[in-house]
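Go through this pair.

…
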Amino acid sequence: ASENRVDDAIALLERAVARDRAGGTPVPWRTLARLGELCWYADRTERARGYLGEALALAQGAGSAIGEARVHALLAGLLQRLGEASAAESHRTDAAISLRALGDRAAALEVELDGLAATQRIPEAP
């Protein structure tokens, strides 16, 4: 049932994005980031990568530091999952730097810890 809801949400957002683009209305980076996140959740990783890449470019173009940080963090997670560790680390570093610049040390630490968890083998419990 939740898969159908995710599919419905993706379809709804994709229609809204297509409508905005056809009408010449700018699509907010937040919309594309959410769409990318939903596609990632639905295991549509290439679509997720495309939407997140667009969201990052829009956040950068709008001068949204929080947008850049958020999308860099999402891209880091997605790329880590896809086995692209170097690209993931680059996005993770950019996210942490942006979050620190915004004064959000806790979120920066969380991003860094996500990176450690993704790259370090945690021993099994005895």
User: Anything to note?
Assistant: Helices lie at 2-22, 29-41, 45-62, 65-81, 85-101, 105-119. Residues 12 and 96 are 32 Å apart (CA to CA). DSSP finds six helices and no strands in the chain.
